[in-house]
Amino acid sequence: MQKSLILFMLLVSLGLSAQVTVDGTVTDGTEPLIGVSVQVPGTTSGTITDIDGRYELTVPEGGDSLAFSYIGFTTQTVAIGGRSTIDIELGESSQVLQEVVVVGYGIQQKDDLTGSVGVVESEQLTDIPTQSLGQSLQGKVSGLQIIPSSGAPGADAIFRIRGVGTLNNADPLFVVDGMILNDISFLNPQDVESVSVLKDASATAIYGSRGANGVIIITTKQGTGEGQLTLNAYTGTQEVVRQIDVLNASEYATLINEADVNEGRAPRFPNPEQYGEGTNWQDEIFQQAPIYNATLSFQGGNEESSFNLSANYYRQEGIIRGSAYDRFTTRLNNTRQVKDWLTVAGNLNLGYNTSDRINTGSVLATAYRADPISVPRDSAGNFGNASAIGNTGNPVASIFYTNDRAETYRAVGNTYADIRFLDGFTFRTNFGLDFVYDRSRNFVPAFFVSASQQNQENDINVRNAYRRNWLWENTLSYARDFGVHHVDGVLGITYQDNFGEEIGAGRQRVIGDDPSFYYLNSADPTTATNFNGVDGGDWGLTSYLGRVNYTYDGRYLITVSGRADGSSRFGANYKYGFFPSVGVGWNVSREAFWNDGGPISRLKLRASWGQTGNDRIGEYQYVPRVVSNTGAVFGGEPALLVGSTVTSLANPNLRWEETTQADVGMELGLLNNQFLLEVDLYRKFTSGVLFQAPIPDYLGADPAVRNVAEVLNRGLDLGANWRAGGDPFRYNIGVNASFVHNEVIALDGDTENFFGGALGVGGQLGTNSRVGSAVGSFYGYEAIGVFQNEEQLGQFPQLGNQQVGDIIYRDVNGDGNVTAAEDRVVLGSAIPDMTLGVNGSFSYSGLELSFDVTGQFGSEVVNAKQMARFGAYNFEDRWLERFTGEGTSNTIPRVTIAGQNFETLSSLYVEDASYIRLRNVTLGYRFSTDLTDRLRMQSLRVYVNGTNLVTSQDYSGYNPEIYNDSLFNNGIDQGTIYPIARTITAGIDITF
Q1: H/E element, 931
Q2: Which of 367, 430, 517, 738 has the fewest CB atoms within 10 Å, counting from its CB?
């Protein structure tokens, strides 16, 4: 009996010793660290520190140590040694020195990079309530310009890295978890762990033919530690940031009367004052619109397996009535270490979204031009006839009669296997697929508002399209240290294939207006139309790549890389291109002579040179394209004969567009790296620019794509960051600025000008890409005044039949005449000379405040919506300062309904596009662990957020950032781009 009791007590003591609880606090020496990972090596047990830096962890049997890891600090593994309390002070390894950066086909420590790479972490992306990762990145990275494509619900952003180096598609390449893509509109920003922006050739040459416009690598969140459930949700409201100041009804009637008199007609409004304020059409189309977002994620893992599963619902109603966007996405990332030598992983994103669309261009332009005397609806509830006076139509009716919905299904994913063998070798095979299915349905009922705004018979149009893109990559990597020598490298071969197709049809006379009849078979088959085309392209790419990194004693760095690409977009003569690069670096502060105790704690110098390419020209440009079933009349007795004809000329000698870039950079740390500065000076020269240059019309076919130009971008990227403070107050301030000079260096042959940029006025083009100017520069006449009297009419040369009160245009060459060929000049460019981003965060105990400021300077915009006048349209309020007699105005001409003052592009319509914007402000509170422990939560945070709160701009339009469908059209505002919104939201973040 006594022996049994002793044995029992021994077993109990052993059991108690097998399960021990350890707690403690983790600091950086002065303040607690939040979110430090505390793990028991070799087990699934782990936790993170709370807001006070505290942790508590039950250590399972066999656990004899704890591992503490935190970004920017040196990982420590500490033996437990029978202790129940372990306080740890982590030494700062510098967020710069040890930060791991994702680069092409690998990762590197920031301090070992020879290229220019900007990094943004997840916590910097989720403050702004948007479905677009691009808009979350605005103002975060030097050299990266983010342009809102529009403020429409679900709209993505436009990316530009270090200017515009082509006349074609200037978008960067996107890589999401190893999958190469052309867009990232499907991503939920809350799924993103980090973003790497590769800017110079040393970083981008590994992507060869598609790296000329820069590369953006996105890594999504993976699982780690014990299971963790997170809910992020917010809701709020949106409104238009600003309205355009136009005339009220009495002011409008007054000016139209003047125009009538100036053009020889009797005034049409006997008493303008009787109309008062009239209708504000912008109030009629804009609304306060709600926005909702909720993300639920579950993640966990250990050394053998990890997963991250998330689901997101996002809804945004538009600030223009009738528009809305819904999106549901789910993501699963999973990694499994099957054997010591084998790891398999997969990433899958499934998304579905719907858009209720309106004809934004028609609605906005009509609301801008509609006369304020007309009414949206009359006393009987019928739509008002806004065509009677101003010939514009009723924008409220346009919204009412629109039934246009689009749906998109998208699956993006990849799976890979890593096989480790010998000493330092890893073979990876990675297969990815991007599949998109789009469909849309547009029904327009029969209606009548006015003779110019009607649809006599209802009609329906449907469209279905799919795009498929697969990628298969096989790479062999090697990494090993030999004393003070470190070598790593990668070799690979990749294949990518892309195909898309679309089909659409339309019919009239649908049975009824009920949505149950919105099908083709419900309409008259004799009215059928259809089309079939390629959507997304049909092309393939085979590539061979390689890179070697060498580091000596952490001081001297060299990177050599290259890629050979073979593209189906080029003929046999120039199918393959090779793109090399070399980068070197010197960590000066690691030298023996460096004074570690001085104010300069870190200094690194680096330089790089390399070449990249661009093949975004569409498919089959090297062969002629022929269309069948065309007719022509031949013979002595004329007869219509059916045959085929060439519609597009071919160029079998197409070769790669090639960008050569040189970069010199410096990275500086002061005061133990509290202040960090990064400076890059670069020169980016693109030769053989691919473009469909104009040819004489008598050739009777579209021109072939040719290598026709050379474009230069040179500039300076600056990034600075200051972080300081301790318990309980800490703060961080970051500033980045980018300066760029864009210039066309040469054009092909005798071509002097590439015109583009439709103004919406009689086929006029408003941009010109010419030697010595920026791509897509605005091109027109310089307005130097207004003819004040008959004497001036005889003193200055005229452009056409001008009268007193009209614009005086500069005679540039002084020949006494003003002509289009000799006297038009560059009036500006939509490409900014400088972009700016300022970011800050402050925390005091649980209170948190962050802000973002963005801006651009040195760019212009063409206010083309003022020019296109085909009736008695309304005017912007600047026309209240018009010329009404000698001495009244020398800038704004007399009022006319149309005429040369409006139909000629001049500096009168070119406005400053500079702005500075309080992009985002977030005020939040993170509750203490005393409360979260009682609620069985790991963390709880609530916040309020404001986006686009204040904008300082001189431009009279909605937004000075105007992006259209091509580089030649950018910056031309025809009043068709959906305005951006001011958004106020409140949200909550909970982690269990």
Answers
A1: helix 929-934
A2: 517
